[in-house]
């Protein structure tokens, strides 16, 4: 894979994200799709342009603690978001 292919893939994912903004979908589904696409783009950038593909141990093992922190923060802050949505 070359830099140009990765860049074209990132452009394609960005165009898909923009197209999702124009399509009528359920908000929960849209958020899930946008998060998945954003995660894929971030992973491609880190893997290719930051040269994490060359490191040992695999970068996934290094990033797992941060994933747990992010999920934990999401679970801690989710009740506040639900309450704020109900106040509207």
Question: In terms of topology, how is this protein built?
Answer:
Layout: H1 3-22, H2 27-49, H3 59-86
Instruction: Give the helix proportion (percent range).
Output: over 70%
**Which structural class fits the helix and strand makeup?**
mainly alpha
Shape: flat
Number of domains in the coordinates? 2
Q: Give the SSE order as H and E letters.
A: HHH
Low-pLDDT segments: none
User: How many helix segments?
Assistant: 3
The proportion of strand residues reads under 5%
Mean pLDDT over all positions: 83
Cα radius of gyration in angstroms = 17 Å
Number of strands: 0
What is the end-to-end distance? 48 Å
Biggest sheet architecture: none
Quaternary organisation: single chain
Molecular structure report:
With 88 residues, this protein is an all-alpha fold. The chain has two domains: 1-54; 56-88. It has three helices and no strands. It has helices at 3-22, 27-49, 59-86. Helix 1 packs antiparallel against helix 2. It is flat.
